[in-house]
Fold these 4 entries.
Entry 1:
Amino acid sequence: MSTPPPLASGPEGPYHLRPLLDTVLDALHTGGRARGGPLPAGGPGAVTAAVRDAVGDVLPDQGDPDALRTLVHVFAEGAADPAHPLCAAHLHCPPLAVAAAADLAASALNPSLDSWDQAPAASALEALVTRALAHEAGHTDSVVTSGGTESNQLALLLAREALGGTVRLVHGAGAHHSLPRAAWLLGLPDPVEIPAPTGTLDPAALDDALTRLPGPHLVAATAGTTDAGLIDPLPEIAARCAAHGARLHVDAAYGGPLLFSDLHRPGLTGLEAAHTITLDLHKLGWQPVPAGLLTVRDAQDLTVLRHRADYLNADDDTEAGFPDLLGRSLRTTRRPDVLKLAVTLRTLGRAGLGALVDRVCAHAQEFARLVQDDPRLELHDRPVISTVLFRPAHATDTDVAALRRHLLTTGRAVLGRARADGRLWLKATLLNPTARPEDLAGLLTLVHQAHAEGPR
């Protein structure tokens, strides 16, 4: 019988991993160098062909000892690199090296947070970190999620259990698409969308809707819209909700980490009034995906998640002091995503994280200034967080869409797109704290070049 392949944990695990890590790091380097820019050139067809050629037979009769090097190389060569200064399309952050290193330990030890006997230290660490981050937002507790979408779904579930199945979601036009989708998944009444001509939820229009519509209501405000990074007027919205007895959820998946910055924290005034808050540290928190949380003002709200499976949380085990982890998520198997969060928080501290937030927000202000000072470009508005919308002056929406696709297929730059004021805009989401002023100027140079070249 052949010798089994080595395992990642156990007494010999670190020794087995070390040469494999050398292989991975070398392949990441060679693959990134072969890519040469923020995105592989050639578009979807070229990338798909390269991956297909590298993989060959997905499940061959006999294994290939060089598969790790081969596949990591093609994976890196065909990646969109969020650490490249010209990769600025989405809320897709470059992860901190220390967070990625911590994630390796989580993968090697492979704890599963559905019972204490699979994750003793991980369960204790998660309890500490989730409460600390909840307190940062003015709440009492939080649970770990896979990101903003799951957090928003869970927020609607808690609202349904608190207010009943007739609770109606009321949200602004700029709210994340996962909110109305969650209402559909949970069988709730059709959501009501409040027009947001300025990009944020209008308290007066909200007040009118809450007056007209039969309750109960769940109002969803946003602290950092996906398209433009705008923050709804949270104190005014909270006051309207209190006046009408409506429950309030704030989706702060993007803007939540402003809490770490002394400079930008005031922009989230009123956040603590929400019943639930979505946070997502794989956006403005520089964590590998996933790194989401849902915080609750009242920890009792989480009791509806309690669930019994005798092999995981038998009553007598719980009574004997073993933590019941099933009530901390709708998922059963859960990886210890809290480790990378804890390592990052302890390594950088509030000051270090706040400094990163300040840097990317400053980059956005500088980028907006460069756009505003260039007569060939049009700026939509000054940024609130780190998102800038702009477009070539006098361009049509068709021109803007074609320009962006041209940059993508040539692999020169990665910009997003957003609609605002009835027009299509290029979107730069600046999350790279290591970007330099010349990188920002270089991005605009590429936009001018692509616009001059025209559609391809």
Entry 2:
Amino acid sequence: MDNPYIVPGIVAVTLVTAAIGFYGLRLARTTSDFLVASRTVSPTWNASAIGGEYLSAASFLGVAGMILAEGVDMLWYPVGFAAGYLALLLFVAGPLRRSGAFTLPDFCEVRLGSRRLRKLATVFVIFIGWLYLVPQLQGAGLTLSTVTGSPYELGAVLVGAVVTANVALGGMRAITFVQAFQYWLKLTALAVPAIFLVLQWQADGRPAITPPDGPAFRTATAVVVEQSATLTLGDGTTIRVRPGDELSFAAGDPVPQVAGVPDGLDWLLPGDPTQEGGGLFATYSLILATFLGTMGLPHVLVRFYTNPDGAAARRTTLVVLALVGLFYLFPTLYGVLGRVYTPQLVMTGQTDATVLLLPGAALGDGLTGQLLAALVAAGAFAAFLSTSSGLLTSVAGVISTDVLGRGSVRDFRLATLIAGLVPLVLAINVAGLDVSQVVGLAFAVAASSFCPLLVLGIWWRRLTDAGAAAGIVAGGGAAVVAALITVAGPPLDGWPATLVAHPAAWTVPLAFAVMVLVSLATRRRTPLDVGATMLRLHAPESLRL
């Protein structure tokens, strides 16, 4: 892509991020500053920071790409991502802040008094954080290679280096400023081009999203295939393409149909629940993972520890619901308009690049198209930087307090280097993963481990450390195995593939059931101070318990 404004835009975002981080460094002095910003972040400021870190590569790039390829079935992703904060508001936000914990392992020890459970929670925090960090770095590599033609590894290394430096030097205090700024940058980067895209669609005579004769190329287009696929051409012939194959189409030529991808009215209708592999099961599993996974994401939960009190945590969640809901309107719009202006991305397998390529495809290579494409690319980099910052902070906080030992500022900085290096190495070596699929698996692991722990730990006084550990190992462990098979295992077909790719529908109930049954069987292990702990979690702050 020959656009002279993209590189300066990305450089500007990176420099502003670094500058804000160094400003936060001036305010970060104590361990509390590094871990929870000394619990002094206001609800509005904190909500912007949560929006900044939560709206990741999957939100900025993946949602639009999935809607372009798969249709309305994929709307459950943005719905679930946003609705997860409703569950967080109802069940977790206030009591979690009142617990006084710094991290999720801290909460385990405060509520159940078990060092072994704390260590188990540490392992899952690190795994979820790294599983979620890999697609952020992968998205950075994809973005930079798509818009500049640079090597994929450069984008991943650039984001990894900037984020690691910011977090290591300023901790939570610094990245709060960074993430709040980046939420509004990301929203602007999608909203402003969206206005121009809709106006262009109107000027083009409102072309149909699913025309009766199928989509056609609006201009002469050369396609380089990135993934193997079977294509049905306009004359009805079928061909098999492989990575590296080049195809050329004239203006007006019908877009080939990709086998296994919905087209026409099928794109507008929910999937067939009777299809092989269980489409309805996959949908319910996705809803469960996204709705319950949010409350189990360590980098989201650590944000609520930064509020002054439980009431502020609840107000923060309400504002986040509004900010996140507003943001998700725009990736959906990009995915829909992608059916009109970038249908070839389904053929190439580059659907994650829809947001990046759509302004140029719709508006042309003029100044307006180039400036809007640069703005979108800058917003994409802001997404990777902000989410990676939150993930790295949560993982580094746990490593510094539970692995390295003392939790000092020096430990935190060393932990940040360790926490950033591992996912960077993984991201460089797994460039072909689907961004949103990996993020969905991270949600499934969180929903199957920390969601049951928090819900039962906050609302059921009979939970025991043995029950909590057994539930995390059973449900969370099963989700981890499913994630590893999906990412690195052999290809599967039919129901086994669906159960492994969408594990939340069976791993979440498994975790809850095991926690309850084992806790009932080990009721004598119920903490002696459970009454005082539950009072502390649920009593108004005015009582100062």
Entry 3:
Amino acid sequence: MLQPAFPVLDILAQLPPGGLLLTPNNRLRNRCQQAYASEQPVSASWAPPPVASLQGWLDTLWFRLQQLGWQPALRQVLNREQRQLLWQRAFDEALERALLNSLQLCRDADGALAQLLQWQLVDNLEQLDSAIQPLLEQFALSLSAEAFPLFRMIRAFADQLRQHNAITPDQRDLCILHAFDSGVLPSLPRIDTAGFVQISPLHKAIIEKASGDLVDHPAARRAAVVTRAACSNLEEELYQAARWAAQKLEESNTSNRRASVGIVVNNLGQCRAQVETIFSRVLEPQFLDPAQPRYTLPFNFSAGTPLAQTPVGAAALQLLELLADEWDYSQLRNILFSPFWGDEESLWLRSALFRRLRKLELRQVTGDTLRYWAERITEELKFDSASLPRQLEQIGDRQRRWQRAPAEVWAARFSEILTLLGWPGQRNPDSQEYQQLMHWESALEHFATLSAFAGTLTVTEALQQLRQIASRTPFQAETRDGPLQILGVLEAGGLAFDHLRLVGFGQQQWPTAPAPNPLLPIQWQKHWKMPRASAERELELARELTDDLLNASGDIVVSYACEEDGVHQGLSNLFGDPAEAETFACDGLTEYNQQLADAVTLEQVPDTRLPPLLPAECEHVRGGASVLKAQALCPLNAQLRYRLGASDFMAPSIGLGPAERGNLVHQVLAEFWQTCGDSVQLKALDEGARKQQIETAIDNGLRDMRKKHGHLPSGFWAMEQQRLLRLMDQWLELESERPAFHVEKIEWDQQVSIGGLQFNLRLDRLDQLAGGAQLVIDYKTGTPSINEWLQERIREPQLPLYALFQPKAQAIAFGQVRASDCKWSGCGELEQPIKGIKPVADTQKDAPYTTWQDLSDYWRQGLEMLVGEYRNGVATLQFDRPQDNTNQSELWPLNRWPEREQAAQ
């Protein structure tokens, strides 16, 4: 069992009746109580020892004063969130400047006032000026306290406290000191203190006033064997610490001696998740198995996880975001995929809903859109239960009706919403989840206490306050005491270990860098040695803590990272120059992975085919010509995308995405040519009439796009109209230079069959030319190349495929519709040439075709080859060009390209 570093049993035995042993924290108090309990007879009854933590003792004294009816104690002591609200009001009243981060300023002001009270520089907020003025004069600062924004805020804050008959925790401590001074609280015959490193003047004064005899007990001195371990970074430090701890625990089990092992991590609160992951991987690798039921890990943390980051707390906050009535896709994904909402069947339905919403490619999903598609999906999938649409409709109804309300009303409303959604799910919670549920209820109660200070809140303000409370509420799972303890530096004070490892004690990390309060004069903070005030004060504190740690065990390893923030560093000088420690190259999981790697090499059998298409699948191939393009670029990716349904969605962007801009150009051109059907009408239009017709086509083309992007301002659409107007002018100028033509087909849907597969195609445009020939046109807003038609594997099969099924077609061409770069790019046999459309014989040197018929036969042969590959399930992972691979990187998790490339190397 983990023991205190001082003789607690001897101290308790020497205490007179009514005496008390004080510790700096609850962890050390609990250890003292456990050490005392372990020495008591099993069958006897006994009273708990007189041991208390400092804060627990102060809480008890305050409760006693309230029971006595002492007038100064009949006030509410504010918690952090309540103080934050009053500081915000004080800030609004006292300062007229618009600051960027008023939240942080209020936190700094709260910390500054706490330091003034704890260092007894201010005793009464009502007499602030008389207390501050001598201090300003002492340090030759400005003689007016008005020059300091902090003091104006404190006066306004004191007014708020007076209105609510409330005080801060530091004012409470001052009241306790005055109660001892005035005899309201009797002093104790003796107080023993142990484990304290540094204590504020106010707390020190309270202990001295409360005790007739004060005795401080330093930690027992030990002759420790100290070694050092140099590591490349924090991750390696933690792996070395975990492997070292595993060895010590194994030695303890072998010798049947229950040894205590401690890991003290500098800045544990900032890297707790990484520490837990690494120690789980080394000590409990089966914990990482998704099929393994969750259980309590065999090591204890002193640092808790914020409730807002626990599974239950995070899920509750995410589900309450449904009251916001507008979400982006990342928010909506977390909400709809929450395992704490309903049952597995509803999760399946919500997954289908999210997939449909992603296809809409909206920048923001509104509540109306979510509710509409929830009902549509439920009907399409023929779900018997309509619980999801009903739940969303009820939430939407409440969101519309619920207006501003006090925090206690919002607490009840939030509970109602969670109950409506079936939170936390239908399965029974495990032990940790149950404890998180209890913490959540406490957080809601804590939130409800803000009613008297926050006034009425909107739903956004209420959720923000609740999220702040959950983020500041630590969750520490109740676990049995284990042999391995992982602690922060302060939590380790006063404890003794059989083996101790210190992590993160490089020169740049220890002592810690000073961080004085920005609102208090720096001269005051340095003079009275306030927390984080100066490098000298941090060095003094670090020396005391280092001395305490080096006396905590007889076997100590201290580690450090050789590089921090790109700067080389060594071990902190406070540890001297100890010998090198043993290093650990591997652990159980690493050895197991190595055994697998060294095992008999498995035979690799290439699997480059999927099952051939069934007859029913050949009747309608979804994807059109894009299927053949994908097959040409990479057969496996084509099978994954169009047969197995792997897809990625366009990330919503501000304004219109590239695909939407391209579709818009197609739509405007289609609108124009439906009215202006040939070159004769085009050339007959004067400048005004042509502009009018273009503007009408643009207005019609933008109609649906405006509905989809209703959040965009009118100025955006005006700019888009100007862009399209300039682009259409340039394109129609090019069209007017062509020989006579008639637009035969626009956006024409056609079903074709090739190689036993049927495709649905949509032709952008088909022009009838003089002499009866036809020109097949595909608009492009990019920069296409006709060389993609002429490869052995046709990389752009769309236009060749269209041409094969237009008997009169004699040419195909890309219409490149780009600002300042409009042109034709194609090939064919035309009686009247068009600039940019090459004769077949001139397309490629030494080509196996010289006429249009030869080229058509070449295309038919190439397309039938691609069709045959796709129909027969050919799924090789090969690329003609590296960019074809990188452009489809979203499929790497399925085609496993990175693993294949690594294995090949």
Entry 4:
Amino acid sequence: MRPHTPRTRRSHGRWAAATGAALLTLAMAAPASSHGADRPDRSNGTFSNGTRTDGTHADEIRANDTRSYEVAGPRTAAQRTAVAATGVSVDAVRKDSVVVTANAAQVERIRAMGHRVTALPGAPDRGRAAQPYDFPPADSKYHNYARAMAEIDADIAAYPSLMSKQVIGKSYEGRDIIAVKVTNGSATTDAARPEVLFTHHQHAREHLTVEMALYLLKEFGSQYGKDARVTKMLDSRVIWIVPDVNPDGGEYDIATGTYRGWRKNRQPNAGSNSRGTDTNRNWDYKWGCCGGSSGSTGSETYRGSGPESAPEVKVVADFVRSRVVGGKQQIKAAIDFHTYSELVLWPFGWTHDDTAPGMTQDDRDAFATVGKSMAASNGYTPEQSSDLYITDGSIDDWLWGNQKVFAYTFEMYPDASGAGGGFYPPASVIDREVARNREAVLQLLENADCMYRSIGKEQQYCS
């Protein structure tokens, strides 16, 4: 399938100008004074050695001086892939242009291709939070890491027979990465139930996806025993929700009480002032294979030093591998939530071909049929992810190519125009936009026991 209307890509890019974006906190402290450690200059938020009180060093800011641009000219997937190959992140795909996050050198390379490049406004200014590591006042309804974890604990306490939490690993900076199990069953009954995985917040600035996770937990808990479809799914499925894959990046994005437009994790890169790996280019399937990621540490799509070199990716990958029981993967379907562009995407991203080794025509048809049905329910655009441009090392390609999990990416609100805040939609739209995916989530759960039923081949594949 190829797009015939304007498409927007997965949010592998930045809406906002990263004024103080990716940074490697260097051990470059000045010699200690007689008073001990460097003291902060409260007038400008820095220590005497040039390190900001939020952990950012001035060298890191200079190494990651990026902002958002519109690139007029690219119309085909091949042209968009060529733009992405400069190391930019492609944030949205429009009819005759793309929105990218780029530095000055990347902009010059794009201009050399003959495209017109126009700078766009940065992240919306909604004030500054009263304390660090929190959302601006106008967006206080969003949950930072601490509040999200507290709300999840409250949900588990409210619905102990339906929910339980596992710490499946740690982020680079030591924050818990959790998986919440949602089902009405026992160890005996769970073993026979198909499992479905929902992952959120791979990219730091995509905070609406955490709200999506919190919504699902509340909806499953509150509607069990009231809504027939929810009740049936919790009685017959095991649901896993990983609400925050990249907690370090998310916290860094709001560390100043405003928005930075940060995308990657916060892992240092040896020999570079640029910090962070794009977690959604770090998965161990076709990693770095096909021009769909960057080997430059300063790139927004830096793939890392090797597959699963990002600790957050390895944590989630190890969890998925742990669900192989008796030689069979118990997770049958998945959605990885992102923003923005209002898309339902399916594999493969590494090739433009609809079928390829590891993707038969029946596989592709089942992906597309369920994907289009889900998109019809939420008003998103359905397509194979490579219809936008080539990506490699993505979670969906790994889940399907390596684990045979029917995995989708949902790009949430807003659409490709970016109207409504781009990566930072206002808090006023949270309730509407998370509920917009309720039907699609239920459809995936209902299809998870046999995705091939959607193309009339249940007997062939699932009997």
